[in-house]
Design goal:
By secondary structure, the chain is an alpha+beta fold. The chain has seven helices and nine strands; from the N terminus they run ββααββαβββαββααα. The strands form two sheets. It has a seven-stranded mixed β-sheet with strand order 3-2-1-4-5-6-7. Strands 8-9 form a two-stranded antiparallel sheet. Strand 4, helix 3 and strand 5 form a beta-alpha-beta unit. It starts with a strand and ends in a 6-residue tail after the last helix.
Length: 293
C-alpha cells in the first residue's frame, strides 16, 4: 500500500486495503486544505479486489462523513498495478506514503517521485522513515519508529523481459457544472466562517459554569489519654450537624448543572445553508453530493 498527492492536493480518506504486498498512492490526510478539490490524488494498488473495496469505502465516506463538508476534498483515482512500475513520465508529488516495506534498492526510486519541498513516508529497513526533499538533489531523512511491514512485491516482467508500466490517469478539466458546485460550496463556507467570527467577537463567550467542589467533613473520633487511664471520647464537630444538609444541597446542585454540561450535538452548517437556499430540490442535493446526512 502506498499513498501520494500532487499539486498541493487536498486530503482524501486513506482507504484501507487488505493486502500488504500492494502499493497505493493518495494524499496525506493531514493535508486536507493544501490545494482543495483541484489537487491530484492517485492510488496505485496491486490487487483489483482491494481497489473495489477502496471505492466502496470512498463512496461511504462521501455519503456519510461530516468531514466531507468541513474540508475541501480531492477525490482519489485508483489504478491497478505495481507502484514500482509507474511510468517515468508521471508528475512529481507533494506527499507520498508507502504502506509496505520498501527495499533499500528502491529508495532512490521512491525519492524521485517527490517535488522539492515534498514529503515521503515509508517503511525502510524496519523503520518508519520520513524523507523531505529540500533541494533538487538534497533530502532530509528522519527515522520515526521501529515497524514491521510485509515487503513490496517485486515487478513481474513480461515474456519480452520488459516490465508493464503503470499509466496514471491523465489530468482532466472539470465540467462547468462541477466547477460551479465547488465555487458555491466555497462561498457558503466563507459566509459560515464570517458569521461564526462575528458571533464570537460580538461579546463575551458563555463560559461553562464550573461547579465548586464541596469539602466533605468527616466526624473525628478521638482517644484521650488521662494519666494512666485511657478514655475513648468523641469530640463534637460543629459541622457534623450540617453534613447531611450539605450532601443534600450538593446533590441538588449536581442535578441542576447536569443539563448545562451536556454537549450539544454537532451541526452541519453547510448542509443547513444549502437546504435553505431558494433552489429546486434536485439542485440542492447536487450541491450536497447527494449525501445522506
Amino acid at each position: 500500500m502506498f499513498t501520494a498527492a500532487e499539486v498541493g492536493a487536498a486530503s482524501g480518506p486513506r482507504t484501507p486495503g487488505t493486502r500488504p504486498s500492494s502499493c497505493r498512492r493518495g494524499p496525506d490526510p493531514r493535508a486536507a486544505e493544501r490545494g482543495g478539490p483541484f489537487g491530484v490524488n492517485h492510488g496505485v494498488e496491486l490487487h483489483s479486489d482491494v481497489i473495489e473495496y477502496a471505492k466502496q469505502k470512498l463512496d461511504f465516506f462521501i455519503r456519510t462523513s461530516d468531514s466531507f463538508d468541513k474540508f475541501d476534498f480531492c477525490e482519489p483515482s485508483f489504478v491497478t498495478g505495481n507502484c514500482l512500475e509507474i511510468s517515468p513520465d508521471c508528475s512529481q508529488y507533494d506527499r507520498v506514503y508507502c504502506g509496505a516495506g520498501v527495499q533499500k534498492e528502491h529508495e532512490e526510486y521512491m525519492k524521485s517521485l517527490l517535488k522539492v519541498g515534498g514529503i515521503l513516508v515509508m517503511p525502510l529497513e524496519e523503520k518508519l522513515t520520513k524523507i523531505t526533499r529540500i533541494g533538487p538533489s538534497a533530502w532530509e531523512t528522519k527515522k520515526i519508529l521501529a515497524v514491521s511491514f510485509a515487503p513490496l512485491v517485486q515487478p513481474c516482467h513480461s515474456e519480452s523481459g520488459k516490465s508493464r508500466l503503470v499509466q496514471l490517469p491523465p489530468l482532466a478539466v472539470r465540467s462547468l457544472q462541477d466547477l460551479a458546485r465547488i465555487a458555491i460550496r466555497g462561498t457558503i463556507k466563507k459566509v459560515i466562517h464570517q458569521e461564526a467570527a462575528s458571533r464570537s467577537g460580538s461579546g463575551l463567550k458563555n463560559t461553562p459554569r464550573c461547579k465548586r467542589r464541596r469539602v466533605r467533613r468527616r466526624r473525628m473520633e478521638t482517644i484521650v489519654f488521662l494519666d494512666k487511664e485511657v478514655f475513648a471520647s468523641r469530640i463534637s464537630n460543629p459541622s457534623d450537624d450540617n453534613s447531611c444538609e450539605d450532601l443534600e444541597e450538593e446533590r441538588r446542585e449536581e442535578e441542576k448543572t447536569l443539563p448545562e454540561t451536556k454537549p450539544d450535538p454537532p451541526v452541519n452548517f453547510l448542509r443547513q445553508k444549502v437546504l435553505s437556499l431558494p433552489l429546486p430540490d434536485p439542485l440542492k442535493y447536487y450541491l450536497l453530493y447527494y449525501r445522506e446526512k
